[in-house]
């Protein structure tokens, strides 16, 4: 019963934020700070409705000036309600083209200046990535899930190269953001509050790197994130 009530309230919340966000987006379309505002509107009330306490430890992300590549692990469709609380200013995201067809949310995603990529069209995907690289040079950060798909498992999937190509080409740092494994223990039918830790790591410089450095850079980021996620799990299980 509690699960159904929460789903109903989340759906209503999603609708109301979509309508309010649409008004804001039309008044200031493609403003580089729209995404942060929309993410807050979605995430803070939704996390409360779901009984989730987000413990944000993101000083390295908060202190990093705009104009970086932010990478994060991707667990479920509820990530918006968790990670939305830590999106920094002047940040846009890359998402698959199908997101644009979700009523209200898709329009907000577009009006937020985010990038929709058609993965089935290699030419269009390359054009989108080139445009995104130019965005990085305009003091706007890019948020990417390098696994490329949802992964609730214990081990991170192999990272795709796009985010790292962009960072190297633009010469900007990469900021890893790690989320503790929450998707398997949400407990939406329970009154018990769950804690989810979001922790950002120190920026990883890419200035001076070339495509030859790509494999080592990807492995460095993936290893650091895996270690951080495992460590957070240890912290939570000890409580």
TrEMBL record:
Residues making up the signal peptide according to the UniProt record: none
GO molecular function: acyltransferase activity
Record keyword Lipid metabolism present: yes
Domain Phospholipid/glycerol acyltransferase: 68-182
Keywords in alphabetical order: Acyltransferase, Lipid biosynthesis, Lipid metabolism, Phospholipid biosynthesis, Phospholipid metabolism, Transferase
CDD domains for the chain: LPLAT_AGPAT-like
Pathway(s): Lipid metabolism; Phospholipid metabolism; CDP-diacylglycerol biosynthesis; CDP-diacylglycerol from sn-glycerol 3-phosphate: step 2/3
EC number, UniProt record: 2.3.1.51
Coiled-coil regions listed in the entry: none
Superkingdom of this protein's organism: Bacteria
SMART domains to which the protein is assigned, alphabetical: PlsC (SM00563)
Catalytic activity from the UniProt record: a 1-acyl-sn-glycero-3-phosphate + an acyl-CoA = a 1,2-diacyl-sn-glycero-3-phosphate + CoA
One Pfam family per UniProt: Acyltransferase
InterPro entries, alphabetized: AGP_acyltrans, Plipid/glycerol_acylTrfase
PANTHER family: 1-ACYL-SN-GLYCEROL-3-PHOSPHATE ACYLTRANSFERASE
NCBIfam families given in the database record: AGP_acyltrn
Recorded family membership: Belongs to the 1-acyl-sn-glycerol-3-phosphate acyltransferase family.
Domain remarks: The HXXXXD motif is essential for acyltransferase activity and may constitute the binding site for the phosphate moiety of the glycerol-3-phosphate.
Name under which the protein is recorded: 1-acyl-sn-glycerol-3-phosphate acyltransferase
Provenance organism: Pseudomonas fakonensis
């Amino acid at each position: 019963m509690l699960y159904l009530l929460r789903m109903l309230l989340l759906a209503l919340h999603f609708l109301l934020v979509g309508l309010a966000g649409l008004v804001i987006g039309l008044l200031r379309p493609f403003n580089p700070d729209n995404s942060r505002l929309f993410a807050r509107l979605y995430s803070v009330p939704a996390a409360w409705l779901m009984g989730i306490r987000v413990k944000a430890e993101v000083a390295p992300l908060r202190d990093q000036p705009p104009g970086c590549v932010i990478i994060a692990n991707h667990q479920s469709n509820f990530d918006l309600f968790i990670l939305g609380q830590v999106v920094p200013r002047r940040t846009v995201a890359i998402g698959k083209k199908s997101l644009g067809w979700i009523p209200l949310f898709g329009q907000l995603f577009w009006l937020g200046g985010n990038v929709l990529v058609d993965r089935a069209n290699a030419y269009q995907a390359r054009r989108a990535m080139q445009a995104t690289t130019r965005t990085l040079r305009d003091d706007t950060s890019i948020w990417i899930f390098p696994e490329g798909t949802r992964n609730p498992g214990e081990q991170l999937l192999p990272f795709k190269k796009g985010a790292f190509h962009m960072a190297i080409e633009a010469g900007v740092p990469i900021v890893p953001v790690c989320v503790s494994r929450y998707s398997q223990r949400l407990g939406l039918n329970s009154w018990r509050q769950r804690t989810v830790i979001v922790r950002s790591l120190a920026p990883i410089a890419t200035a001076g790197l070339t495509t030859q450095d790509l494999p080592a850079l990807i492995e460095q980021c993936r290893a650091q994130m895996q270690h951080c996620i495992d460590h957070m799990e240890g912290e939570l299980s000890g409580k």
